[in-house]
Amino acid sequence: MRLKHKPIETGDKFDRLVVTGTAPAYVSPSGWRGRCWRVSCDCGARLEFVVREDAIRSGTTTSCGCRRAEVRVANGRRN
To answer: For the chain, what is the radius of gyration of the CA atoms?
Structure first.
């Protein structure tokens, strides 16, 4: 059986996020379970937070929010 993706391990880096460990699984209201990981951002603003594995792999979550602020400044927006 082939794995679709390389397994995520502690120390792996996804854009600005560095995986620091595992977190309790996410359970949706319909019963779907998803794996979660503890991550930290390269900017150092937040120490550690939890992100679902599908958000890391798809690129939906790429930072702690620091990238959003940088993009706003680059695009000339203040809000």
So the answer is: 15
Beta carbons of 2 and 25 less than 8 angstroms apart: no
**Residue 68 and residue 77: Cα distance in Å, rounded?**
11
Tokens of 35: 């794996």
- For residue 5 the two structure tokens come to 């993706």
How far apart, in whole angstroms, are the C-alpha atoms of residue 41 and residue 67? 10
pLDDT digits (tens, 9 = 90+) for 45-76: 767 999 999 999 999 999 998 888 888 888 88
Distance of CA 48 to the CA centre of its chain: 11
Task: Say if CB 56 and CB 37 are below 8 A apart.
Answer: yes
